[in-house]
Amino acid sequence: MIPKPPPREGSLGFLFLPPYRVQGLSVAGEQTVIQVPELDTCFDMGTCPRAVLPSKFVAISHGHMDHIGGLGYFCSQRNFQGMGPAKIVCHEGLAPAIQKMMAGFTELEGQTTPYELIPLAPEGEVEIKNAIWMRMFETEHTQHSCGYAIVEKRSKLRDEFAGQPQEKLRELREKGEDITRIQEVPLVAYLGDTSPGAAMLRNDVRTAQIVIAECTFVEKDHKARAEAGNHLHLTDIAEWLGVLECEHLVLVHVSRRSNIAVAQKNLRAMVSKEQYEKVHFLMDYRTNRDRYDRQAEEALRMEAARAKA
Ligand SMILES: [Zn+2]
Ligand SMILES: [Zn+2]
């Protein structure tokens, strides 16, 4: 008998939740990296698969190795491939340690990897695309652990000026009158690792189009473990679904010892059909592939119908 070849490394989990793709790898304690290509953003960088390199922004939720292990490599590869410096968004409390880590690589390699560090205070924001902002909020996991809400800020005419003729509005604007207000549309929220807490009830989280959250433990007798590790348990998710207004809830960071099929069965027993249908497990390859195949078929049908018309 000759030895077996090593197992093939798993491919990236993938969901198309129009207009966004959510893709990446996430297993509790091992690695978490989640990319939303349309927003030029990765959440965490536990490892650095090739596919995530084009996203300029990486938002770090906390300093555990399974969330930050690939960060140095990400910066270095972007530079090596001529993609420009990575922009690292983090809690301001984490910034000095990240700088020290990157300085360590400079010393090891004898060359400097360029990167831009964007430390945020709680509720601090950075514009990542035109009128699209990333906001940091604190979570309950480790010191300086945080999540992010990505919101679009649309400029709207104030109600009292609705229906006014254009010339009148121009006149008002020229007089220096502020005739617009900013309407905030929450697009994507990422919770990182966290105990159940206030962050889950924020409006920019609850009403985001897509919420990405951890669900480390799923078995009934693992509730105490979830509490001890400051993680979410499936029962927390079930309760949360009662107040979540998002279109999609993407669950990540399931522990390797937990079975996603069991998680789905248990969750289905705890929530309504409508709530259950919002939930996706990023690493459930089979279900997500079937879903994508249906989307692709539907797209082909639409195209054919358009061609006929
Ligand atoms: Zn983790
Ligand atoms: Zn952690």
Précis, in short:
The protein is an alpha/beta fold and 309 residues long.
Provide a descriptive summary of the structure in words.
The chain has 309 residues and is α/β, with parallel strands linked by helices. The chain has one domain: Metallo-beta-lactamase, Chain A (4-Layer Sandwich). Helix content is 30%, strand content 28%. It is built from 10 helices and 14 strands. The strands form 2 sheets. The protein has a 7-stranded mixed beta sheet. Strands 8-9-10-11-12-13-14 form a 7-stranded mixed beta sheet. Helix 7 runs parallel beside helix 8. The chain is globular and about 85 Å long. The protein starts with 12 loop residues before the first strand and ends with a helix. The chain binds zinc ion (ZN) (2 copies). One zinc ion binds next to loops.
How much helical structure, as a percent, in the residues?
A: 25-40%
**Assigned CATH superfamily:** Ribonuclease Z/Hydroxyacylglutathione hydrolase-like
Strand order, largest beta sheet: 1-2-3-4-5-6-7
Bound molecules: zinc ion
Average residue-wise pLDDT:
96
CATH class: Alpha Beta
How many individual domains? 1
- The poorly predicted ranges are none
Shape: globular
- Gyration radius, rounded: 22 Å
Number of helices: 10
Distance between the termini: 63 Å
Blueprint (SSEs and pairs):
Layout: E1 13-17, E2 20-27, E3 31-36, E4 41-43, E5 57-59, H1 65-68, H2 71-80, E6 86-91, H3 95-109, E7 115-120, E8 125-129, E9 132-138, E10 146-157, H4 166-174, E11 180-190, H5 203-206, E12 210-214, H6 223-228, H7 234-240, E13 248-252, H8 260-270, H9 273-276, E14 279-281, H10 285-308
Parallel strand pairs: 4-5, 5-6, 6-7, 11-12, 12-13, 13-14
Antiparallel strand pairs: 1-2, 2-3, 3-4, 8-9, 9-10, 10-11
Helix pairs in contact: 7-8
The structure holds zinc ion (ZN) (2 copies).
The site of one zinc ion has 7 residues, from helix 1.
